[in-house]
Amino acid sequence: MDENSNGSHIPKTKKPKITLITPSQIQAEFAHHDASVARINNGSFGSCPASILAAQRRSQLAFLRHPDHFYFNQLSPAILRSRTLIQRLVNAHHLDEISIVDNATTAASIVLQHAAWSFREGRFRQGDAVLMLHYAYGAVKKSMEAYVARAGGYVVEVPLPFPVNSNEEIISEFRKALERGKSNGKRVRLAVIDHVTSMPCVVIPVKELIQICREEGVDQVFVDAAHSIGCTDVDMQEIGADFYTSNLHKWFFCPPSIAFLYARRNPKGSAFDLHHPVVSHEYGNGLAVESAWIGTRDYSAQLVVPEAVEFVNRFEGGIEGIKKRNHEGVVEMGEMLAKAWGTHLGCPPHMCCSMVMVGMPASLGIESDSDALKLRTHLRDAFGVEVPIYYRPPQEGEVGVVTGYARISYQVYNKVDDYYKFRDAVNQLVQNGFTCGELSD
């Protein structure tokens, strides 16, 4: 028996027993996937099981059945439930630190728009620096151009090595970039740091980089963690960023599209003056409320977080168990492919999560970003393999090096045969003397 604040006894309630999901049930949950395709690219668009799609459909029909009732009586409480679960998942202190937005790209626009206002309104000086990683997501780079550079910020990119062998290599380059940002008396106002870079994919030591930012007087830190939740450890108190975003439709089984944006309260308890880029009736009522209504649209993806939590808890160890098995699976498959092709991984196993870069045979002749895209298309069309390909330009003096890397993902629906299919397709291309130069634009 437990006691409440009045000293009375409250009977303990038994948690319902959860039956662990079976392999056949996993297969059924993802039966809508195209069975003819080896889908080893969960990282791009994620995956949503049938049970959560059914929950989404119920929400869509509830709106269509009686839109006014749904809007006035159901939408706000449902979004609040999702925000509350996300707050617990990421260990945020306060519920009002969590807003739900469409995706990490929207979150980046919100944060970078705020930085642009700070430059325009004089809180930041013209020419002060904003840092981002060279491997930042393309849309975030465009947002940096659209907001920060136009407002007078000096954008400094942190060049990262690839392949990468240690966290120390990343930390060293980050420190050098900070010094460039602080040159000639400038201040570094904002650092944008990926938690898991997209292409090439590497887990970045965010806690160490944020600690360096604090020591070096960087005003604000924004972690773009599009891939992180469901893929690597996410704890707002441990990470210590001012802003942090992650998609729930990539690795947490929600349908497209839903992300959270965490904005830390300052020590005095006040929040950042953030606003959704789509201005609607709720403008000025706080970002969480603004984001919860940006006009008539389909909000159903944002309402099924409870069902997603139920789904991951059907696996042994919950989301932690899924992350562990996916990491072990992607490392095993990556090493299998690298051995088959006589290449190497793009980083040590401890620097990847549920995705890893695998070097492809140099004989394929991947000599440009265009070659990489054409090869990806050829693998899809000719072999039924879906996997992103990355082109890594050779450094000066390098000859015969690996210039093409595949980014393989591993999610609960994947089977070993998916990776064997990819291995065999590449081996066949090599045996046939194929080069990317044979592919037309």
UniProtKB/TrEMBL annotation:
Keywords: Lyase, Pyridoxal phosphate. It comes from Cajanus cajan (Pigeon pea). Signal peptide: none annotated. Pfam families: Aminotran_5. Its EC number is 4.4.1.16. Coiled coil: none annotated. It is an enzyme of class 4 (lyase). Residues 76-271 form the Aminotransferase class V domain. InterPro entries: Aminotrans_V_dom (IPR000192), PyrdxlP-dep_Trfase (IPR015424), PyrdxlP-dep_Trfase_major (IPR015421). PANTHER family: HERCYNYLCYSTEINE SULFOXIDE LYASE, L-CYSTEINE DESULFHYDRASE. GO terms for molecular function: selenocysteine lyase activity. This is Isopenicillin N epimerase.
